[in-house]
Amino acid sequence: MQGRSSAKSLDRPEALETSPQLQRFPEAYPQAIRQAQVAVTAALADGCKLLEVEFPTASLASVPGDAEGANEMTLSMGFLRQFCRIFQTKADSVRIFFPDEKELQVAKRGLSSKTAENIGGDFDVTRFNLDYLTKPTGLLDLGIDINKFNLATRAQATDDLFIIAYPHFNVNEMIAVEELYSGAAEASGVPIIVFNGELDRIRSGYYPSLFYPKIGRLAKQFIPKFEVCYYIHNFKGTRGGVLFRCYPGPWQVLRRQGDDLQLIHTQETAPSLKDVALNILK
Asked: Is residue 27 a contact partner of residue 11, using CB atoms and an 8 Å limit?
């Protein structure tokens, strides 16, 4: 991929403390990563098996697409490496699936670029088990997978956690995640964490079911099973704001007033993005 950018490093998180209290919106990425770690730790302790972590990567006030897609994946890779520190003591039993074979190589070895020296390579030295979801070809975009393999067979008996790294570039990536769940994780009870998978695209009907029937089934049967542990979605415009959640706390809607954020609404269940934009913020 072209035009990737290097991710900034984050501070090492301090000892984790879980709390059901209302969390404040993070001021910077180190705080956001720490909040995500706390939220996931609490959700795993509560027995959640499908967990979602989602936040923008260009800035905490950005939306998907503000940075070029490959750059967003590079940034997600760096943030994922920081997030995974909470699992460092059991890294040998954690399997991280990158979107495809090429992204796995970028995570392990980096990618040469004319504009930057160090791109990717965040997992060049690690005890985590590294794997990939798909092996794309030109035919895969047409729904013809000549390199089809059973992802469930890649799981090992020693795995006790699967982390899925930013599976949003191709619709087949989340289809593979569902296959991993139904073929291995569901029966074994191994939790799956989807990190920056942009699952809202599937929830919102971005992919029409007529043309993407498998994604339509995911939207109805698989995606609703996820516990949204950490979530930031920004709304731009004259009445911009943020939808924010940090498990086990409620969903918060905050209105932007200049450089400040004002909490204007909370609720226990997730509101739709349409409801936040058209009703709560306005």
From this structure: no
